[in-house]
Protein: FAD-dependent oxidoreductase
Organism: Dolichospermum flos-aquae CCAP 1403/13F
Amino acid sequence: MTSLTGKPISFWIDSTAETTYPPLENNISVDVAIIGAGIVGLTAATLLKRAGKTVAVIESRQIVTGVSGHTTAKITSLHQLIYADLIKQIGEQKARLYAESNQAAIEFVASLVAKEQIDCDFSRQSAYTFTESEDDLEQIQDEVAAALKLGLPATFVQETSLPFAIAGAIKFENQAQFHIRKYLLHLAKNISGNGSYLFENTRVQKVEEGNPCQVETDQGVITAQDVIVATNLPILDQGLFFAKTYPSRSYIVAAKIDPAKAPQGMYIGSKKHSSYSIRTTPDNGELLLLVGGEGHKVGTVTNTEECYQKLENYARDRFNVDTFAYRWSNQDMVSFDKLPYIGNLTPFNHHIYVATGFSLWGMSKGTMAGMLLSDLILGQDNPYAQLYDATRATPFLTQQSVKQGIDVASRWIGDRFKGLQSSSFSELTHGEAKLLTIDNEKVAAYRDEQGTVHAVSAVCTHLACIVSWNNAEKSWDCACHGSRFSCDGKVIQGPAVKDLHKIVE
């Protein structure tokens, strides 16, 4: 296999300065504690502080370096192909609310950028879902009809600025794209002060509802009247969100492209699987082409380097780019009923709120979630609250949910038999990772290129599934619910809040 090129870091993160917000030092009290400093948390914090509430935003590492920092950063209500299906599944009225809520999120961002003059490469763009196959044209045309019925800015087109022919596409006008981290860092800098706080390197371990609620962290306790858990998948195991969603991982490569040859607009293929996401972004007077795709359920692909390789091959073939500047991956929770969960953690919680299940479209849905949650806490009516109610009855027994449930169960049992014949670190070659069984304990071991062995417990600290190796990211990933850990066992992504136990060689 050809070695991968490009810096293994998100462009959004690499092109902005590191943040240095302090960790929590003393126990404090605020009106609202917000766990997670991504697009949901920072949007909600901005609105709540503007309404006169004191807030504390708590981030386990650095702000906007998690899911929000690894997105494609498209702000659109065109979510591949969804509206024809939504009308069939939940009816025209609810599908219209879904459309309107995502359009409202676009306009919220646009308005805030204009009002506060946020320097974040914001630009209005048309969004397209395209197909190269005549066989898929009917599906595209059905989506156009459904979108128009719901009042969306849809048209059917057969020509685009892509450098290859398409059979047809649905086009939404007046959508948008931006530099997500520049946007959110602007929101973040206005949080602290006047009784409000933003903390980094502070990991929340437990939340207890009460009057007030108690948020226990590794640095101290925060008391708050209300708590928002905005951690992609809630770190709290109540509400069964880990059973109503599944974690999906996807990949992005970025290459410099001649502006004269670059496509105008934002694109995604119509296929549920094997589709590619395409957009450009400014980069210091030059232009970067971002190509994303090769998505899969977390932990089901070990040779993730191959995912990047396929993206590079596609970009070279279709856009005639040569070398790549960046490569990174991202992870999101996919909702079984296509709708995000936004609202109360459970029917019995009146002060703990969650937002999850954005199904890879987190820029519009995450913004909308921040708007909705701030309304709920402020006691204001929101027209979308019932549609996205996090405690709603969910159709667990869909074909997809049954398949994912069986997969989780089989992994919980079957993965325990992996590595039973391997019992020595000496079996590891340089750059290799394996599941071993040492002294009857399941061990996740990686020998780095310098020969050092990094050994940790292979049992995920969330709900005790066995982790799998991700060779491109050099991480241990849990296929059950999406927790991720460094080769040294440090939590990279929840719902786990505790590191993997280190094993001494």
Observations:
- The longest helix spans residues 92-116.
- The CA atoms of residues 219 and 452 lie 31 Å apart.
- The chain has a mean pLDDT of 92.
